[in-house]
Design goal:
CATH topology: Alpha-D-Glucose-1,6-Bisphosphate, Chain A, domain 4
Number of domains: 1
Number of strands: 7
CATH architecture: 2-Layer Sandwich
Helix content: 25-40%
CATH class: Alpha Beta
Oligomer: single chain
CATH superfamily: START domain
Structural class: alpha+beta
Largest sheet: 7 strands, antiparallel
Number of helices: 4
Low-confidence stretches: none
Strand content: 25-35%
Order of helices and strands: EHHEEEEEEHH
């Protein structure tokens, strides 16, 4: 059986705890345009980038120093015919300790070559995981998207998270 979900991995000299903490610091490696908690089980957060992409994630698995899983609740791309390609997908971060090294295996379950967004999403996730997240883990500073204001305003308002 061939698995076609998108997967990439990195290996670093940091501890599993350091990798886990960096993954959960979503604003430090993915985007500064994130609303909601990104480090608590069953919490939801909203990610958006310009007028290109907006999605709502739910943290469905959070095992300290081992695993983080997000479920895509809602998604919208401005550049695809099917605006909901990621809906129901799972974003999985597996942390594996190997002696003095830690491997982070990233899998976007459901992101398959048949998706219209596949090439763009493949390249973006590769850049975020192998570049920005790895930099955050190894140097303490990632390269997240800068906060953008006023874009995707209608969807951001529609999907807005409840105030707690």
């Amino acid at each position: 059986m061939t698995i076609s979900d998108f997967t990439t991995s990195i290996t670093v000299d940091q501890t599993p705890e350091g990798v886990f903490n960096a993954i959960n610091n979503v604003r430090g490696w993915w985007s500064e345009s994130v609303e909601g908690n990104t480090d608590t089980l069953n919490e939801e957060f909203l990610y958006y980038y310009k007028d290109v992409h907006i999605c709502k994630m739910k943290i469905v698995e959070l095992v300290p120093n081992q695993k983080v899983v997000w479920l895509v609740l809602e998604n919208h791309f401005s550049f695809t015919e099917d605006q909901t390609e990621w809906n129901g997908n799972r974003i999985v971060f597996e942390i594996l300790h190997h002696g003095d090294k830690t491997e982070l295996k990233f899998t976007h379950e459901g992101l398959v070559p048949e998706y219209e967004c596949y090439n763009v999403c493949h390249d973006a996730w590769t850049s975020y995981i192998q570049g920005s997240l790895k930099d955050l883990i190894t140097t303490g500073k990632g390269k997240p998207n800068a906060k953008e204001g006023g874009l995707n305003a209608e969807l951001i308002e529609k999907w807005k998270l409840p105030v707690k």
